[in-house]
Amino acid sequence: MRRRARRQPWTPPPPSTLDVKLPDSLHALIEILAEEAHDNWARQRLSEGWRYGRRLSRRRKTHPLLVPYCELTHEQQEADRVVAMGSLKVILRHGYTLQEPADR
Questions:
Q1: pTM score, two decimals?
Q2: Which domains does the chain have, with CATH numbers?
Q3: Quick check: 15 pLDDT over 90?
């Protein structure tokens, strides 16, 4: 029987976006992306048979965050905002541009 090689702990490299500043004009987009990320996460869980529960239980497939984004605490929403901001910074770091819709 072959022995499995023991993996070394992995440390992700520092983000290449530390110096990327997001303009204030992207605040609305950050909120849109954060809410969309939460909704996508919730849809995936629900499709796997998860449901709302006051306590997280992997056995019962219940999760207290299976609620609309607006019902999350500020801290819980902030976690989704951090992901959204990181994604936007990567987009800008790679030379893509973003502009507000003309009707805003």
A1: 0.82
A2: 29-93 (1.10.490.160)
A3: no
